[in-house]
Amino acid sequence: MAERKAGFLTKEGGAYKSWKKRYMCVEGNSLVYYVKENKKDRMGEIPLSGAIIRTADYKNKKYCFQIETPHRIFHIIAQSQTDMNEWMEYLKSIAQPKKEVVPKPAAESSEPKVGLDDFDLLKVV
């Protein structure tokens, strides 16, 4: 996994659509945000597992990206283009669902396939 990342980002509120600067860091599979860098006042978290992270053309905000979860779309503003790219790359590495190994279908065998003709037809009265 990439080097741990933490720092200040600006997040749009949920009920009240004001923008607040928050100290954010990844804890487990969540982006957790606090009022200050000392991590005393935890304000909330954004689940990253399976989230979609992409740039956002939103309310004319520069360096804006979004984290789309099944329950909400979070809008986040970074301090620069470079900062936004680094955050997005890091968050995508955590949000990426684990790829399941799907077994390949077995090669065609020489055995005949079973069809409807192989069964007796029963009538229910």
Verbal overview:
- The protein is elongated.
- The protein has 125 residues and is mainly β.
- It has one helix spanning 81-95, and strands at residues 6-12, 19-27, 30-34, 42-47, 52-55, 64-68, 73-77.
- 12% of the residues lie in helices and 33% in strands.
- It has a 7-stranded antiparallel β-sheet with strand order 4-3-2-1-7-6-5, covered by helices on one side.
- A hairpin with a 6-residue loop joins strand 1 (6-12) and strand 2.
Count of separate DSSP helical elements: 1
Identify the overall geometry.
Answer: elongated
Q: Give the proportion of residues in helices.
A: 10-25%
- Strand order in the largest sheet: 4-3-2-1-7-6-5
Provide the structure class: mainly beta
The major sheet is characterized as: 7 strands, antiparallel
**What Rg, in angstroms, do the CA atoms define?**
24 Å
Strand content: 25-35%
Number of E strands: 7
Low-confidence stretches: none
| Element-by-element helix/strand order | EEEEEEEH
Mean pLDDT: 85
How far the N terminus sits from the C terminus, by CA atoms, comes to 65 Å
Short summary:
With 125 residues, this protein is mostly beta strands.
Write the layout of secondary structure elements.
Blueprint: E1 6-12, E2 19-27, E3 30-34, E4 42-47, E5 52-55, E6 64-68, E7 73-77, H1 81-95
Antiparallel strand pairs: 1-2, 1-7, 2-3, 3-4, 5-6, 6-7
Which features does this protein show?
mainly beta, 7 strands, elongated
